[in-house]
Amino acid sequence: MATQSIFQYVCQQVVIYVGLFLFIAGLTSGLLTLLVFLSLRTFRQKSCAFYLTIMSLVNTFHLFTGLFTYIMINGFGINWLNMSLFYCKFRPFYVQLCTLISFSCMCLATIDQFFATCSYIRWQRLSNIKLARYLLIVVTLAAILHGIPSIFSYGHILSPTTGENNCIIMNTAFRKYYYYFYVPVLQSTLPISIMILFGILAYRNVQQIAFRTIPLVRRELDKQLTTMVLVQIFYDAIVVTPSVFINIIMTIYGSTSNSLLAAQLNSISILGIILYYFHYAGSFYIYVCVSKRFRQQFLYVLSTIHVTQCCRLTINNNQIQTETS
């Protein structure tokens, strides 16, 4: 009994401190990434950067409903899902929506860089901002349609022991789909496999890009974005892959009657989910660490563009006040 309490306490502290750190770091990462990508025309006109921008935006929103709710439930014992039937149905839909869009954007960014760095002109034309916008609309609609069944599958059931509502999957077929296909395949294995495959192909293209007659600015931008995407893939593979194995373990041993084993499995599951949320919090820090050009662009955006604008606004306000007085 004491061992189970220790497992529970340690996991609770990890969720609170690591989770809150991830939440703050993730919000900062998302906002700073958006600041750079939206401030520079170079990125606004590039389809790969467009995908990364949308991914950062979605990841930022996901942190509130996904991670913050998880911290409240497993860290502070405040379960909003059990308190509100609306939130019980809305959160799974929203989390699935953000997850699918986020990983789809990362996959599309990787595929886009493969096309952008390809030697065939016909394939290079597939890397364009207009097509990227159409694909984003298709992905968003597909993610919405995919999430609709979860709205009808989740619900409240009264616990006979506590007398309180529990938010669970009430549809047996959807439960099997969720745990046997969505979590191990759509949420991890499939996107990671696509990213690794096209990441390797894009890397091979970049190795040969120096021998082609391509404008220097475009060549450097393609190399920069490919490097950023490749390191992001490596990072995602590290933080996402463990969830696949944890899901397999939970599927096999999840219904055990051994209370100590159940506590250990629950601890592993919680730690795996926290590790999984690193995907939503690390983009900006990855880009800053691996790309010297991105660091320079970030400093340029921060100091030259926005600080200069603030100074101009201050000067204009002072002039208006002087003229008025």
Characterise the protein shown here.
The structure is a single chain. The protein has twelve helices and two strands; from the N terminus they run αααααααββααααα. The chain has a two-stranded antiparallel ribbon with strand order 1-2. It has a single domain, classed as Rhodopsin 7-helix transmembrane proteins (Rhopdopsin 7-helix transmembrane proteins). Helices cover 83% and strands 3% of the residues. It is elongated and about 70 Å long. Helix 5 (85-116) packs across helix 9 and helix 11 (283-290) packs across helix 12. It has 325 residues and is mainly α. Pfam families: 7tm_1 (PF00001). GO terms for molecular function: G protein-coupled receptor activity. The chain crosses the membrane at residues 14-38, 50-73, 93-111, 131-157, 177-204, 225-253, 265-288.
- In DSSP terms, counting alpha (H) and pi (I) runs of 4 or more, how many helices? 12
**What percentage of the residues does DSSP assign to strands (E)?**
under 5%
**What would the average pLDDT be, to the nearest integer?**
87
CATH topology: Rhopdopsin 7-helix transmembrane proteins
Outline: elongated
Instruction: Give the assembly state of these chains.
Output: single chain
Radius of gyration: 23 Å
* Span between termini: 75 Å
Largest sheet, spatial ordering of strands: 1-2
What structural category do the secondary elements indicate? mainly alpha
CATH architecture: Up-down Bundle
Q: Note the main sheet.
A: 2 strands, antiparallel
What sequence of helices (H) and strands (E) makes up the elements?
A: HHHHHHHEEHHHHH
Helix content: over 70%
The CATH homologous superfamily corresponds to: Rhodopsin 7-helix transmembrane proteins
Instruction: Give the uncertain stretches in residue-range form.
Output: none
How many E strands?
A: 2
Write down the CATH class.
Mainly Alpha
Number of domains: 1
Organism: Adineta steineri
GO molecular function: G protein-coupled receptor activity
Membrane topology: Multi-pass membrane protein
InterPro entries: GPCR_Rhodpsn, GPCR_Rhodpsn_7TM
